[in-house]
Each structure stands twice: as C-alpha cells, then as structure tokens.
Amino acid sequence: MRPSPHHETSRARPAAPNSLSTFEVVPSGAALAAEISGVDLSLPVPDDVKDALRKAWADHLVLLIRGQKIDDEQLLAFSGVFGPPHEAAARKYHLDVGEKVDNEYMISRHPSISIISNLGRDGKPVMDNGGLGSYEVVWHTDNSYVKVPPAGSMLYSLEVPVNGGGDTSFNNQYLAYEELPVDLKRAIEGKSQVHDSSRNSAGVLRPGVKLPTKPEEVEGPTHPLVRVHPVTGRRALYLGRRRVWPSNYILGIPNEESEKLLDRLWAHATQPKYAWTHYWKVGDIVLWDNRCCMHYRTEVDTAQRRVMHRTTIKGEAPVAP
User: Fold this and answer.
1) Which end of the chain is more exposed for a tag (fewer CB within 10 A), N or C?
2) Cβ neighbours of residue 156 under 8 Å, at least 6 residues apart?
3) 303/77 Cα distance (integer angstroms)
4) What is the per-residue pLDDT across 249-274, written as a single tens digit (0 to 9) for each?
5) What is the DSSP string of 263-314?
6) CA distances from 159 to 118, 128, 129, 234, 261 (A)
7) Cα–Cα–Cα angle for 75, 318, 26, rounded to 5 degrees
8) CA distance 101 to 70
9) Nearest to 18 by CA among 112, 71, 81, 61
10) Distance CA 94, CA 157 (A)
11) Could you tell me the CA-to-CA distances from 226 to 136, 266, 275, 313 in Å, in that order?
C-alpha cells in the first residue's frame, strides 16, 4: 500500500529550526559548557526555546552555538534573551580620553557592542592596539572592576586565526568553591576584596590612569570573595582578575597575608580539572556566565587577523552568602 500524500510530505520535510523538536543541548563532558544545536539566530526565536536556552545557561554556565550568520542587531536580540544590555566598561575608558568612535577596529558605533580584535588603525594585525590586541589574556572575570558587573558576556566570531592562537578557556567557579580545602574556605568566609580598575585584562594600564605603587592605592569597587548566584542560588568564588602587583587585595587583613591567601585561591580556582577550552571557527557564538566562571585566552599570532563582536548582559551587584 502506498503511503498517504500526507505521510510522504511529513517525511520529506525536515523539522524547522528554533523549535523544541530540533533544540538540543549537548554537554561538553568537562566541568562546564554545552553546545546548542537546532537554533538559527537569523530567525525569530519563540518563547519556549528562549526558556530552554535560559535553563541550559543556568545548568551549564557556558553555551556554544555554531554556524551563525547574523548582524549586530540580531546579535543584540539574542543577547537580550538572557537580559538587557550592559554597556562595556572598557568602552568608557577609551571615550573618556578622546578615542575616536569611528575607529571600527576598536569601538563599535553601537554602545552595547564591543569589537574585540587584534587589528590596528590600518586594519592589519598587531600585538598592541590599545585594547587586548594579540596578547595572552590571563584568567579573569569581565568587568569585575565596576560596582555592578555584567551577568554574562557573548562573543561572536567574524574572523579567526587558522592555528594561530586566540583559543578561549572557561572554568567552573561553583566547583572551585565547593572543593576548597576546609581551612581555605574558613579563611575567606565573610571576606571581600578590592577589584583593581587601573588595568585591562591584558594587564595594560588604562589611558589616563595613575599606576598604583601599593595595594592601598589600588582603585576599584569592593566585592565579596564568594557570591551567591541570583538564579541558581549556588555559591561561587569571585576572584575577578590578578596579573601584576599591586592589584586586587583582601580587606581587613595585612597585605602579606592577603597576597598569600590570594595565591592559594588562584592556584586552586584555575586548576585544569575545572576548565573547558573552545577552539574558534567563524560563525561561533559563545555565551558565558561571569557570575560563576572565569575565562582565559591564548596569545594570537600577529600574522593573522582575529575579529569578534561582544555583547555583555546587565547583572547585579555581587551578594555575599
């Protein structure tokens, strides 16, 4: 018996993207991160898929979506699934010292998008372009040097090096906190640290900022060393960034004790067992939760271009347990 025409049509037609029937979450198998498939961000995303995306983000901390071809407005629309935009704090530092907004390789015309590239004003790759450039970027949390840091960051790859570095790793600070040695967990209970706002993630002094010579001169907001995630209710280490001395320091204890305590915390929090690494392809979108994970980037080959657009998602002031 021949199948009915209806049966033939239903078999021949593939399931449409952006529906729960095609939506899939594939965990990385590491301490965090999952790849999302069945989503085309050039098309409208229905509410039930938005809910599934938000749940996947809460569960896995980092989401990867491959093969996207979208413009800045579509990138912002997708970022808006997870919350309203947070204007990148680094943008303010550039504009305050007269950086020209028409420099397309440094600052986007859109206030909610940052251009992360290793290109200079002539459009060629360089080591230092006044931003992150091609430098290695050590473990850090985005914008922890402001009073209300972003909840998340989203990076969309437009140009990537071919075997030329720029790989990005992420780590799970829920697990880092949960597995702290008992004495170390007790030592940081109720403590906060000042987050250095003088340098960017590559350790480069921001334009117009005075170099601190001792911890007491470090400017920046105070945040708890352990914060409670507002969605999951879980506790996570919140270390921010730490590249050169003097930088972040713990309040209420001598500087020498603060340095020793931070040394132990950073050594513990950045162990490979808590991490997952992403090797970029053009069209990749990666979303990560700044409230419970840090990230790290390898140095980029200055013979190759790397251009990405980044959005950040509005967060809330960190709350201690």
Assistant:
1) N
2) 68, 70, 75, 284, 285, 308, 309, 310
3) 33
4) 999 999 999 999 999 999 999 999 99
5) HHHHHHHT-GGGEEEE---TT-EEEEETTTEEEEEPPBPTTS--EEEEEEE-
6) 10, 18, 17, 36, 40
7) 45
8) 22
9) 81
10) 22
11) 26, 13, 19, 21
pLDDT of residue 202: 65
Residue type, position 23, single letter: F
**What is the bridge-based pairing of β-strands 168-172 and 275-278?**
antiparallel
Structural tokens at position 223: 């945040």
- The alpha carbon of 79 is separated from its chain's Cα centroid by a whole number of angstroms, namely 13
Q: Tell me the torsion sign for CA atoms 18, 315, 28, 232.
A: negative
In degrees, rounded to 5, the angle at the alpha carbon of residue 281 between the alpha carbons of residues 87 and 273 is 80
The number of CA neighbours under 13 Å toward the Cβ of 203 is 12
Q: Are 77 and 154 in contact (CB under 8 A)?
A: no
User: Tens digits of per-residue pLDDT, 203-216?
Assistant: 778 878 888 899 99
Beta bridge partners of 193: 223, 250
Helix (H) or strand (E) holding 138: strand 137-140
Q: Over 48-77, what HEC string results?
A: HHHHHHHHHHHHHCEEEECCCCCCHHHHHH
Residue 104 is encoded by which pair of tokens? 């397309």
139: amino acid identity, one letter: W
pLDDT at 27 exceeding the cut of 70: yes
